Amino acid sequence: MKTNLDRIVKDIEELSKFNSTPGRGLTRFSFTEEDRQARNYIKRELEKLDLYVYEDAAGTVFGRMKDYPVEMPSIMVGSHFDSVKNGGNFDGPAGIAMGLEVMRSLVENNVKTAYPVEFVGMIEEEGGRFGGGVFGSRAMTVGVTLEELKANCDSDGISMAEAMASFGLEPEKISSAKRSPDEIRAFIELHIEQGPVLEKENLDVGLVEYIVGIAEYRIGIKGRPDHAGTTPMNLRKDALIAASELVCQIEELALSQGDGTVATVGAMDVFPGAANIVPGEVELTVDIRSRNQDCIDGVVAGIKRSLKDKADSRGLAWEMRELLNVTPVTMSEKILNTMQEKADEGGIGYKKMTSGAGHDAMIMASMVDSGLVFVPSRDGRSHCPEEWTDYDQLQKGIELIYHTILGIGEV
Ligand code: HGY
Ligand code: MN
Ligand code: MN
Ligand code: MN
Asked: What is the ipTM of this complex?
């Protein structure tokens, strides 16, 4: 083993302390005190290695090897360090621990890689606070606009731009986070599988070939709040009835598409939200995923038809705001082949997989050669306090990426 298990354990355990819901899973939202504590831990670890440590305008943390020409593209390794609400300790931090431990091991073993290796720790991948997600990677690749930062608000109505400014960032400079493809030689992420396959098949790692496309929307349905006792049923403009019919139709739309298409209404708010008031307004989210873009488009079109029918028949208004729209992605074959080679050499059991979860790697893959390694999730659980990966399994994934990086120079 070239990596150090104790340091990997310490990274996960230290990062799990920066949590706004102790005892009720891990919650670490972007641009909060918990974010600050986590990023300071990460920066301290990077600074021990004499790396060039910096942040971009999106708040992504980088740690780049110094002794290479500045214009040389880097091999980026890492993941995200924000979390969902009441989530687990490994979704994101497993990849952060990988990035830190790979940097430590390369520096410690005085390895001269063909390209400078650069740690990357991103934020707001989950979209847990502002919706959408994969923010750090989008800022680096397709770019994010100041308008988006002003439009996306958290549940307290604070916009991303305001949160970033009070966090000490400069949202008006967000376009400076955009990189050109020739600055990055490759991006490699390690992530927990968040599913049951590797554990069931007793495999060490998953080598991700494809990542599903994701379309995420916030839908608003506007009717009219009325007295629950005096308003006859046929005169109501009840937004919740329409929303409830829509939720059932979304399930049918997903089932009708095939190709493993899934759709989820994960959140719904009813306004004013009192027992004796006819619901005047409903806000709901819908998250649609498939490895086939036509299927995603089919569900979206079906939702719009259904909303239009309801609006016409019930006298309601509606709007559908896109939060995220990423097409299905194929990971770099060159990197996948190198991973396979190194896994075979290291006696690491693997299978090629499609990811049903979204990751920063799917955004980076739209611009540069990208690879994604999964490590097993106990009982396939994730986005919950039960989320767990055995540390020796995590270390095997990290070892594989360490050796893959050595191989990329030859790719
Ligand atoms: O939603 C996802 O798939 C990822 O966990 N952000
Ligand atoms: Mn994640
Ligand atoms: Mn997640
Ligand atoms: Mn991810």
From this structure: 0.87
| Homologous superfamily of the 5-211+329-409 domain (CATH) | Zn peptidases (3.40.630.10)
Q: Which atom of ligand 1 is nearest to the CA of 134?
A: 6
For residues 279-311, one letter each, b for 16 or more C-beta atoms within 10 angstroms of the residue's C-beta and e for the rest, the string is bbbbbbbbbbbbbbbebbebbbebbeebbeebb
Decide: 121 in ligand 1 pocket, CB within 6 A. Answer: no
- For residue 250, the SS3 value is helix
Whole-angstrom distance between the N-terminal and C-terminal Cα of the chain?
23
Choose the CATH number for 213-326 among 3.40.50.300, 3.60.40.10, 3.30.70.360, 3.90.79.10.
3.30.70.360
403 is in an annotated binding site: no
Share of the chain above pLDDT 90, in %: 96
| Residue 358 CB less than 6 A away from ligand 1 | yes
Specify the pLDDT at position 2. Answer: 87
The structure's pTM equals 0.89
- The closest-lying atom of ligand 1 relative to the alpha carbon of residue 91 is 5
Please write the tens of the pLDDT for every residue from 171-191. 999 999 999 999 999 999 999
Greatest C-alpha distance within the chain: 79
Q: Minimum-distance ligand to the CA of 87?
A: 3
User: Helices 239-257 and 293-314: crossing angle, nearest 10°?
Assistant: 150
The response to whether residue 133 sits with its C-beta less than 6 Å from ligand 1 reads: yes
What residue spans define the domains of the chain? Answer: 5-211+329-409, 213-326
At 408, the pLDDT band (50, 70, 90 cuts) reads confident
Which atom of ligand 1 lies closest to the CA of 127? 6
Ligand 4 center to residue 244 CA distance, Å?
Answer: 30
Question: In whole angstroms, what is the distance from residue 365 CA to residue 52 CA?
Answer: 24
Helix, strand or coil, per DSSP, at residue 252: helix
Whether 191 has a binding-site annotation, put simply, is yes
Tokens at 95, concatenated? 């990849």
